[in-house]
Amino acid sequence: MNRRFPRAAAVAAAAFTLLVTASPVSAVPPPELVHSEPVDMGATTLTASFTDWPLRADRSLDFTFEPAGGIESHVGKLKVLAPNGESALLGIAARLAGGNEMTLPRHPRDYNVWGLDAVALPEEGTWRFEFTVQGPEGTSTGTLALPVGPRPGPSPTVSWTVGLLPWVLAVPLLAYLWRRSRLVRRRIASDWSGRAAS
Hints:
The chain is α+β, with helices and mostly antiparallel strands. The chain is built from four helices and eleven strands.
């Protein structure tokens, strides 16, 4: 009995350690935030943080949102408006929600805050994030205007032109090689048929 107990305890400890270290939250570090913006929510505030700043169009980053006092006992909702004023769906959670307003999920790498993981704002201009937070103290709302600069790198037109340039040169060369090999095959077939007839 005394010999079995330490072994069972060791197995239980190993299983517990495996479960803890294998959980999604502990497997990856929390997002590295480089900038934060306070959002006036009336009697309270919300902090929006970003893993990249300044924001650029089509560049993926993580967003985290945390109301004063933490997210426990609170429900947060977010509506995103593109520079043209139309609502936009960002991330998988928003698309699963299917509506213009999404319930903010916990960030997959930091369960202590709400957040969006690897999301890109596709257009240059001023985006508007409209927040609604419900909690024991009531409902509060606030809006954050986010300036988004041009996408990094060359324009899509230049990128496509540079990407297609090798094919512009390759297609005539491949056509020439195919035509030449076809003539060679015909010549070989003609020689074989002439020898067979003689």
